[in-house]
Every structure is written in structure tokens, then in C-alpha cells.
Design a protein that fits this description.
Domain PBP: 34-256
Signal peptide: 1-23
CATH topology of the largest domain: D-Maltodextrin-Binding Protein, domain 2
Radius of gyration: 19 Å
Organism: Pseudonocardia charpentierae
Strand content: 15-25%
CATH class of the largest domain: Alpha Beta
Keywords: Signal
Order of helices and strands: HEHHEHEHEHEHEHEHEEHHHE
Number of domains: 2
Number of strands: 10
Protein name: Substrate-binding domain-containing protein
Length: 288
């Protein structure tokens, strides 16, 4: 049976493609090798950072599975899994993931890696947040009514941003608070063009830093840890789900060889790795 991509998701992915994403759109049942083709629903940060461009061709060589990628927000990726429209998820919204797995249609959820979130903004820093903790920083942005650009897309990044506003006791609203409804790379570009602040995962910021007029102004807060998990889907979510492909991908990405690659990714280009490999670690130590 041919698996189709819903119109709303297709529109979102086409928007991401227009903003530089290389997410593939072909349904998993297309082509002569459909039995070895799976759909990976993942956050835009793994796409925008370039990590998937490095890893996925190797996965195909190692396993024979072709991967069709849907790079959307973590909330959208989880919804694709819930509807049986993705075979495996790579996401970074722990609370939403835990609630989803508890529903009973997903298989294993395994720790893969982490990096962190950073608050970025113009070097002139009109709100004066440089060096503050994350909650204090968003409070000063709101007090100054300085432009804040939100993803507003139900992603893991958006969830963390909303948590910061909640901790600061602020409901962000007004002309100073703007949502793009787009992925991380596109949101960073909007913030740069408008000289605004935004919350970004460090990997996507570093991957695009040379094209942005944005500096890291608040970082290192323990509350800004950004943890990624891989979640295998099962046929309980839908008869078209391919659990064999899901397990093959999940086993592969947590394997020692690939975890080493994850830990080296970005070092040559940026002088630091963009992700820290975590497979097999105690999640409690990461707050995941």
C-alpha cells in the first residue's frame, strides 16, 4: 500500500525546502526497492546542522535501507509517528516523547546524544542579557520589549522556549514577540535580519554562524541541555509502519562506531563537536 504524506505536513516540508532543507518527500512505498525504504521523522536541527547529510548515506551503505527524511518540529515528528506515517523518530522534546511512548504505539526509546540551547541576539544587545542565566535573560528581553523571534512550531526548541517564559512568569505577547512557524535555520535567519533575539540549539547556530549577525549572549545554563532520543515505531501505530527498518536505524545510530562519528561531527569545521554522544549513558545524569 502506498504511504502518502498529509497535505499539511507536505506544505510544512515544502516550506522547509524553500528555506534550505533537503528533506526528501517521496513516500516510502515508491520505487522498486520500497521494501528497503523507511521514513525518518526528525527535528530540523539534525537537518540544518548537517548531521544527517553525513550519517544517512553511511546508514544506507551499511544496512541497505534507503531513508526518506521529514525534517519538522519534534511535535510534528511525534504526530507523524502517532499516525503511523513515519517508521522511526529522532527528536528532542523529552516530556512530549515520554508521554507519547506511554500511549503504547511506539517501541523502544533510546538516548542518542545531546548538545545545548543558547540565547542569541545582536551584538549590540539592546536588552542587556549578555552573561545572564536563561530565565533572567528572557525576563530582561520582555521588560525591554526587545524583538524576540520564536519558532512557534511545536518543536522541541519551542517547548524549551515556552518553559523559559513560564519560569520567568511571563506570557510573551505584543509586537515585540514574533513567531515564524518555521525551522531553526529559517528562524535564525529571520532573527538576524531583524536584529532580534532567539533561542537556538548550538549545532544549528554554529553551522550557520558565518551567515548570521547574531552572537551567543546566554549559555551554559543547566536548564538549556538539549537531549535527543531515537524512537522506534511499531505496527500498533499503523499497518504500514516498518519496524524492521526502525530497529535497524535505531540499533545503528546507537552503535559504538556511529556514536564516535557523532562525537566528532563538526570538530574539523568549527573547532568543537556539535553533539555529545550519549548511547548507553544514565539518562538521569542528563536530566532526560
Amino acid at each position: 500500500m502506498r504511504r502518502t504524506i498529509p497535505a499539511l505536513v507536505l506544505a510544512a516540508v515544502l516550506l522547509l525546502v524553500g528555506c534550505g532543507s533537503t528533506a526528501a518527500l517521496t513516500p516510502s512505498a515508491a520505487g522498486p526497492s520500497a521494501e528497503k525504504s523507511l521514513i525518518l521523522a526528525t527535528t530540523t536541527s539534525t537537518q540544518d546542522s548537517g548531521l544527517l547529510d553525513e550519517l544517512l548515506p553511511q546508514f544506507t551503505r551499511d544496512s541497505g535501507w534507503q531513508v526518506k527524511t521529514l525534517a519538522v518540529g519534534s511535535g510534528q515528528a511525534i504526530e507523524l509517528g502517532r499516525r503511523g506515517e513515519a517508521d522511526v523518530l529522532l527528536v528532542h522534546s523529552p516530556a512530549a516523547e515520554q508521554a507519547f511512548v506511554a500511549e503504547g504505539t511506539a517501541g523502544q526509546r533510546r538516548l542518542v546524544m545531546h548538545n545545548d540551547f543558547v540565547l542569541v541576539g545582536p551584538g549590540s544587545d539592546p536588552a542587556g542579557i549578555r552573561g545572564l542565566d536563561s530565565v533572567g535573560a528572557v525576563a530582561k528581553i520582555a521588560a525591554a520589549r526587545a524583538l524576540f523571534v520564536s519558532r512557534g512550531d511545536d518543536s522541541g526548541t519551542h517547548a524549551r522556549e515556552k518553559d523559559l517564559w513560564k519560569k520567568a512568569g511571563i506570557t510573551p505577547e505584543g509586537s515585540w514577540y514574533q513567531a515564524t512557524g518555521q525551522g531553526m535555520g529559517a528562524t535564525l535567519r529571520v532573527a538576524s535580519e531583524k536584529a532580534g533575539y532567539t533561542l537556538s540549539d548550538r549545532a544549528t547556530y554554529l553551522a550557520q554562524r558565518d551567515t548570521l549577525a547574531l552572537d551567543v549572549l546566554s549559555e551554559g545554563d543547566p536548564g538549556l541541555l538539549n537531549v535527543y532520543h531515537v524512537i522506534e515505531m511499531t505496527t500498533k501505530a499503523g499497518e504500514r509502519v516498518q519496524p524492521g527498518g526502525a530497529q535497524a536505524f535505531a540499533d545503528w545510530i546507537v552503535s559504538p562506531t556511529v556514536q564516535q562519528q557523532v562525537g566528532e561531527f563538526g570538530r574539523a569545521t568549527f573547532g568543537q563537536p556539535l553533539f555529545t554522544p550519549d548511547a548507553g549513558k544514565d539518562e538521569a545524569g542528563l536530566g532526560a
